[in-house]
Design brief:
This protein has a domain at about 35-150 and about 205-325: A middle domain of Talin 1, CATH 1.20.1420. The strands form two sheets. Strands 1-4 form a two-stranded antiparallel ribbon. Strands 2-3 form a two-stranded antiparallel ribbon. The chain is built from 13 helices and four strands. It has helices at about 5-35, 40-50, 50-65, 65-90, 100-120, 125-150, 155-165, 170-200, 205-235, 235-260, 270-290, 300-320, 325-360, and strands at about 95, 125, 265, 295. It starts with a helix and ends with a helix. By secondary structure, the protein is mainly alpha-helical.
Amino acid sequence: MDFFTIVLLIAGLALLVIGAELLVKGSSSLAAMAGISPLVIGLTIVAYGTSSPEMAVSVMSAWSGQADIAVGNVVGSNIFNALFILGVSALIAPLTVALQLVRLDVPIMIGVSALMLIFGVDGKISKVDGGILFIGGILYTLFLIYQSRKERDRNVQEEYAKFGRPTVTQWLLDIFLIIAGLVLLVLGSRWLVDSAIAIARTFGLSELIIGLTIVAAGTSLPELATSAMASFRGERDIAVGNVVGSNIFNILAVLGLSALVSPEGINVSNAALRFDIPVMIAVAIVCLPIFFTGYRIGRREGGLFLAYYVIYTVYLVLNSTGHQDLPIFSKVLLFGVIPLTIFGLAIATLQAIKKEGRRRIM
């Protein structure tokens, strides 16, 4: 690890922040001019654009035979997106959750997460599995585009009316901002991930751990920067839609294409099957009751998400180093954190159902 590696790390972070600002500004303006809801823009253009580093890293890793990094990048990024990014964004400003996310997109996120486990239970994501996932990504995108054409949101139409008839110059400027933002995000992620991997390898971490932590967090920084910036600017549909859309895209498109380009599909380690993929599924499931109990993510929920991510990361570090406190930490998780979480979610869900029932009666 030398001075140049540190400089590359800092430069990558700077490009991520600038790129996120350009991407959010251009995409939100484009959404208003086109009469399309920011949620759909967040689920498609922003989500797919900020997931391009995951695509580049996972595809390259699969092509070169580093399956653990490819799988760890997808799984780790999804966990990081849901816990860390939503947590930070909610701490900046409470996030409003659109009804479409609760009814459609989060259930899809849960479904594709479970599908990844089903496909990988034999120890491999085959080319056929990858093809199914990739086709699913295309169909999901086409469905979102179809839904956006049926958009009848009054607020969106009012915002569209403010612009009047958009000029060619306005369209080109917003498109330029989006493209410039994506270029800076990809370049910044590349620099950051390369430097982070160099730093991590000096400590002798495994490829799976590098993929689940350093690479996953590094390639997810565009989502972090974009969602945090969107939350700060008040574009909260983009902030939430970006995370959910990115998680769906990571499994369907990123993992699917990685399996297709890999010489013999992608091997899935027993460690990922036993722990990391189930955690990813559990995180996706936890999002649903939190999302629909009030259709918002408050600062309390944001802090809870961040705490869960810290717990997950600590477990990975203890497990990878064979620390003597791992058994105690595992028991605390198994008999303390997990039961309390389930109990809390059950209470919140029942309260939300009762509240909805009273509202319908009135």
